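Standup notes, structure subgroup. Blocker cleared on the zinc ion input:
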Amino acid sequence: MSPDRNQEPEGAPFDSPTGFQYIRGVIIGFFRLIFYAVVAYVIYKFVMFVLAPRRRQRTGARTGGQSGVMVKDEVCNTYLPREDAVLETVEGENHYFCSQACRGAFLAQRKGGTAGAGRART
Ligand SMILES: [Zn+2]
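Run returned:
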């Protein structure tokens, strides 16, 4: 750790081993204190991180699950909360609808419009 002690035996400020050990003990104790403080801080942050989202989800579910995200129904041009929307993923794009009827109308319209993909899977 400290090659200085072997290379410069003359005029070393902490020549006596007891003094050196004392300084070393103080430094180690200091770093140990910082280490414990950091560990305690990390644990505190972790606990807060784990607890906080659950509380939010619970309160959000009680108030009706309104996350503030509105999506548009492309069939009947209505805006509705994403939680209440019917999701349909077409070619990697998400489309939202207010009901299964609108979703069916969209799919029928898309099939008739492109008439390319013949995926008849019910
Ligand atoms: Zn609709």
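Discussed briefly. The mean pLDDT is 79.
Next: hand off to the docking folks.
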